[in-house]
Amino acid sequence: MDIDSFRRLDVHLFIVILINDIREACSFVLRKTVGCNKMVQRVEKAVEILKNTGVRMTPQRHAILTYLLETMTHPTADEIYKALEGKFPNMSVATIYNNLRVFKDAGLVTELTYGDASSRFDANVEEDHYHAICTTCGAISDFHFPYLRDAEVAASKDIGFKVTGHRMEVYGVCDSCQKNPH
């Protein structure tokens, strides 16, 4: 076989691999379309809320907002910074904190404080949920428990208390830490 035959074979092989990669990517995208559409809608709604409150949308602000809406890990400001610093090398931790304050003031995130030095931020503000906190690794997971609403009703009805909200956390060891003790 001469060199031109090898080149044609390489090109043919490259095209076959590329087509397979495209098929796999399309299959993955089709499986994730519903989730992607919902995420895009959440980001667009949040951007609209910010614009309506007079907040200018910068690329950094959009990236921070998108990261918060996509992640369910309840990140700290430092974790957000580390996740985005490669994309925005000129962005500072102060920029992250300033934007988190803007998002909090707009009702787009909730600041979670647990007595340690760093707050965590939760962008899941549209649905009522509670937090299970791993005492080993610090992971925070959302869970739903509708009966706690009854506690608000009871406080209001039984003692005339005007309830403005409540918070519940469950502490323990997450599934991952149970499987892989440190």
Helix-strand category: mainly alpha
User: What proportion of the residues is helical, as a percent range?
Assistant: 40-55%
Number of strands: 5
Q: Largest beta sheet, briefly?
A: 3 strands, mixed
Question: What fraction of residues sit in β-strands?
Answer: 5-15%
Rg (C-alpha, Å): 23 Å
Topology:
Blueprint lengths: L2 H50 L6 H12 L6 H8 L8 H13 L4 E3 L7 E3 L7 E5 L5 E4 L4 H12 L9 E4 L2 H5 L3
Parallel strand pairs: 3-5
Antiparallel strand pairs: 1-2, 3-4
Helix pairs in contact: 1-2, 2-4, 3-4
Gist?
The protein has 6 helices and 5 strands, in the order ααααββββαβα. The chain is mainly alpha-helical. The strands form 2 sheets. A 3-stranded mixed beta sheet has the order 4-3-5, with no helix packed on it.
Relevant terms:
mainly alpha, three-stranded mixed beta sheet, 6 helices, 10% strand
Description of the molecule:
The protein has 182 residues and is mainly alpha-helical. The protein has six helices and five strands, in the order ααααββββαβα. The strands form two sheets. It has a three-stranded mixed beta sheet, with no helix packed on it. The longest helix is centred in the first third of the chain and has 50 residues, at 3-52.
